[in-house]
Target: LacI family transcriptional regulator
Amino acid sequence: MAVTIGEVAKAAGVSVSTVSRALNTPDLVNAVTRQRVVAAAEKLGYSPNPAARSLREGRTESLGLLIPDITNPFFPPIFKAMQERAKRQGYTLLVADSDEREADELETIAAVSKKVDGLIIWASMLPEERLTELAARMPVVLVNRQADGVSEVHVSLTDGIAQAAEHLKAYGHQRCVFVDGNGNRPDQSRSKSIRAAFDAHGLSLIEIGPYEPRFETGVHAAPLVLAHEATAVLAHNDLVAMGVLHQLAALGASVPGDVSVVGIDDTILASVSTPSLTTIRIDPDEVASRAVDLLIGLTHERPAEAPVVQVGSRLIPRGTTGPARRESR
Amino acid sequence: MAVTIGEVAKAAGVSVSTVSRALNTPDLVNAVTRQRVVAAAEKLGYSPNPAARSLREGRTESLGLLIPDITNPFFPPIFKAMQERAKRQGYTLLVADSDEREADELETIAAVSKKVDGLIIWASMLPEERLTELAARMPVVLVNRQADGVSEVHVSLTDGIAQAAEHLKAYGHQRCVFVDGNGNRPDQSRSKSIRAAFDAHGLSLIEIGPYEPRFETGVHAAPLVLAHEATAVLAHNDLVAMGVLHQLAALGASVPGDVSVVGIDDTILASVSTPSLTTIRIDPDEVASRAVDLLIGLTHERPAEAPVVQVGSRLIPRGTTGPARRESR
DNA sequence: GGCAGCATTGCAAACGTTTCTGACGTATGT
DNA sequence: ACATACGTCAGAAACGTTTGCAATGCTGCC
Model:
């Protein structure tokens, strides 16, 4: 069916090994034969069979990305950036969606791990020892998750949250609500950072939740915000923030007149909402580059100490934040 | 590194061929040896090397999906559904984003086509003859695009658009604007269907565009809608509709009080907007199943006539449509 | 009792590639 | 002039699977 290296060899009147060298290590073959070979390859439309190459080389030139839910608008830009980055280094990126379920994640890893040279796992739900033992068998980069001896890209919300606190403080807000949408996931850092930043700025913080990170969570939270007489809300992510906006409107509260709202992630939701949503941005290109480069590095050589790299965040002030309502209810 | 079939064979005290048969065609091997083999395989954690298997079998057990932009919230649910569907039939799904550029699409096809048994190409920008010749070399299913002799899933907006026209008519609307966001893409069917449906319902239709399918297009369109004294807008997709909503609010027009807005795609944007967006829904699970099943069918046997399957659409009435404003401006 | 047939297993080939080893010829250095 | 080195190429092995073919031993039938 497809054209093989053997047919190219025959067409060029040389051996298969010469064809292979002419294409892979051109300086090892005489200029004129090389010409003949590439001409023949071109003419026949030859391209090497990746399965055969993988079998021989022991590597697939592919990377795997495991994410909890591609439907979450936070991920597509990340995937796109990673794919771009991987492609430029000769790798194909394979995504898989674990559907927020631990069982699916395990199954997906099993299905995909043999087809790739390394794995980027975002916010894994697996127990730490599984991750450690997986990383012992193949290159693994964790994002937003930590495990002993496993490389990691840590996206830190610290800066963005500090800026959000500063921003709200400057607008005169004093009582804020944080809507925790972390569910029962292992990573508690978001909640901790927020507590720290708001304390540091002398803002009183009311945490509600944890709930699941869904639109309905925001809908649920909106009346609670009003009941707590808070003037600002920091939501677990943009989706939850959209729920808050939606329900505040239904309750007749104006944004940002009565309540200011801040999201996290700077997804497309934030930029298209009305008013547009103030949010904390994590640069997808940066996380993507860091994670991909780190993983590719790992496939070449395994350092003794698993590297950890940080990426930052920043506040994008938009239309849902403004001066606090005077206390005159 | 990884455990091979040979090691399993040694551990079980049989030949490699027996191991292979015990795992792939169990009825061909004696029950007790089979037990011994599976036990050994289990114990060593054996799983077959996909590269070797592909090489031998000539198939990869993978399918490719080519989409113009994963960042468009329309696609993630489709991808997810396709991945699910493919997985249940033993296939891995490989997505690639062609970034809306013809050159990238070609390059991506080249990169991915050898790694998969077939390709689903969504809204291809390639010239028809390229698609036809590609489909001659490997199984291809086109979505929202047509090419001679190539299988196709056609998602028809006809029903949804008819329902939208009916819906607007019932609410007393008479002058509607269609914001065309098709850019310079080949497929003109959307515009045609809309013209037909609105004519059929005796609604006057003003088409503006074509523009690119972006948020800003909606922002641009909003004042034009008012200038045309239309009371309803049908946008090219939800994203454009969000732009319209955003700018109508900025212009002081209320939705749906002054203007009704209808989107297309039923993305997450539609469900989280305020008010929530009336839109035309295409069921992702249905397109996904149809496309995947069709493609897998094609990998088994190539029918003489390339099959074409249709999937429908329907209106989801939500908060952005209502009774038309009385003509009393 | 002999022969056909079946169940069970091992051997070896094949898939397409890369790379090691070696062969051949020519140029170079002493 | 001879040995060494080098450039250039062909041959063959190897990667891990699956599967066609053959070998073995047993059963059952006439």
Notes: Chain A touches chain B through 50 residues (CB under 8 Å).
